[in-house]
TrEMBL record:
Keyword match Cell cycle: no
Species of origin: Tepidibacter thalassicus DSM 15285
Any single Pfam family the record assigns to this protein: YceG
Protein name as it appears in the record: Endolytic murein transglycosylase
A cellular component term, taken from the record's GO annotations: plasma membrane
Length: 334
C-alpha cells in the first residue's frame, strides 16, 4: 500500500511538472517584450507549415505544442493566409485567435533586396518606398559598432562597414520601423544564413569573416549562372595563391559607382584599395551583399586550375588555364 501511495504521488508530480512545462511552452515567447514581429502566412499553408513559420519568427516556442493547442481549441481549420503583426508577448492561443480572425496587418511594405545590391542601392530602395531617411540609413551602415553587442560576428576587426552583411531577401517592413530596426532585421537574416557549418568551413580555410564575404561579394557581381560560382571562386583563389592580381572588373565598378560594360584603361588605373587590377589580394571589404549561393561558393571553390575567365554573349563564361588560351577565348567571344 505504501509503495502504491509513493508511486501515485510520483505520477501526480510528474503530471504536474509536465503541465507546467506545457503551459510555459504554449505561453508567450517573451512575456516582458513589447516587440512585434511581422509574420506572413502564405496561401495554402498547412498547420504544420504555419507552426514552423511561427517558430522561425520566434513568436512560438514549440511547433508541436502549438499544433496541439490548435487542435484542442478547434482553431486548426480556420487559419487564414496573410501578413500579421504578432507580439512576442502573445500566447499560442492568442496567436491562433489572431490567425483565425484574418485581421491582417496593413501598415507594411513588401521589399525585395536582390543579391548583389550595394548598400547605396539598398538605402535607395528603402528610401524610395518612404521607409527610411537615406542618410540616416547609410550613417548606420558605416557604424557597425551600433550592432556589435547583438551580433558578435561584427566584432571581426576587419569589418568597418555593414556593406555585404545586409542580407538580400524579401522583407515585410512595418512603415513605423526605424532605420536601425530595418538594418537589425537584415543582420539577423545574415546571422541565420551564416550557420555553424559555414563558420566551421571558414575556420578550416584559415579566413576571417570579412574575407569570406568580400570574396562572396565579388563572386556575386561576376557570376550569372549558379553552376559557375564555385569555378569563378576557384579562379580568384588560384590567383591569390600565386600572388596574381584578381583583376575583377566588379571591384573597379564599385569604386566608380557605376556598372560599365567595358572598363577603360584609365578606369583600371584608378587609385583605390578596391582596385584589384592595381592591388594584389582581396579588397578591404565587400563590394555588395552576396546571396547564400555566392557565400557557399566562396567557402567551397571548385577543384580546378583555371586562372582566367571571359564573359560570353549568353552571360556564361569561358575558363582558361593559360594566358594564351584566355586571349583565344576573348577573341572567340567578341
Amino acid at each position: 500500500m505504501k509503495k502504491f501511495f509513493i508511486k501515485a504521488i510520483l505520477i501526480v508530480i510528474f503530471i504536474a511538472l509536465g503541465l507546467v512545462y506545457f503551459n510555459i511552452q504554449v505561453g508567450p515567447y517573451d512575456s516582458k517584450s513589447n516587440e512585434k514581429v511581422i509574420v506572413s502566412i502564405p496561401r495554402g499553408s498547412s498547420l504544420n507549415e504555419t507552426a514552423g513559420i511561427l517558430v522561425d519568427k520566434e513568436v512560438v516556442k514549440n511547433k508541436w505544442f502549438f499544433i496541439i493547442v490548435a487542435k484542442i481549441n478547434h482553431m486548426d481549420k480556420g487559419i487564414k493566409a496573410g501578413t500579421y503583426s504578432i507580439s512576442k508577448s502573445f500566447s499560442n492561443k492568442k496567436i491562433l485567435a489572431l490567425l483565425n480572425s484574418g485581421k491582417v496587418y496593413k501598415n507594411i511594405v513588401k521589399v525585395t533586396i536582390p543579391e548583389g545590391f550595394e548598400a547605396n542601392q539598398i538605402a535607395n530602395r528603402f528610401s524610395n518606398l518612404g521607409l527610411v531617411d537615406r542618410e540616416k540609413f547609410l550613417e548606420l551602415v558605416n557604424n557597425p559598432s551600433v550592432f556589435k553587442s547583438k551580433y558578435p560576428f561584427l566584432n571581426d576587426k576587419n569589418i568597418v562597414s555593414l556593406e555585404g552583411f545586409l542580407f538580400p531577401d524579401t522583407y515585410f517592413i512595418d512603415k513605423n520601423y526605424s532605420e536601425k530596426v530595418i538594418i537589425d532585421i537584415m543582420l539577423k537574416r545574415f546571422n541565420e544564413i551564416y550557420d555553424e557549418d559555414y563558420k566551421k568551413r571558414q575556420k578550416e580555410m584559415g579566413l576571417n569573416l570579412n574575407e569570406v564575404i568580400t570574396m562572396a561579394s565579388i563572386i556575386e557581381k561576376e557570376a550569372k549562372l549558379d553552376e559557375e560560382r564555385p569555378i569563378i571562386s576557384a579562379v580568384f583563389y588560384n590567383r591569390m595563391n600565386i600572388n596574381m592580381p584578381l583583376q575583377s572588373c566588379a571591384t573597379v565598378q564599385y569604386v566608380l559607382g557605376e556598372r560599365k560594360s567595358v572598363l577603360s584603361y584609365n578606369d583600371i588605373k584608378i587609385d583605390s584599395p578596391y582596385n584589384t587590377y592595381k592591388n594584389n589580394g582581396l579588397p578591404p571589404g565587400p563590394i555588395a551583399s552576396p546571396g547564400e549561393k555566392s557565400i557557399k561558393a566562396a567557402l567551397y571553390p571548385a577543384d580546378v586550375d583555371y586562372l582566367y575567365f571571359v564573359a560570353k554573349k549568353d552571360g556564361s563564361h569561358s575558363f582558361s588555364k593559360t594566358y594564351s588560351e584566355h586571349l583565344k577565348r576573348k577573341f572567340e567571344n567578341k
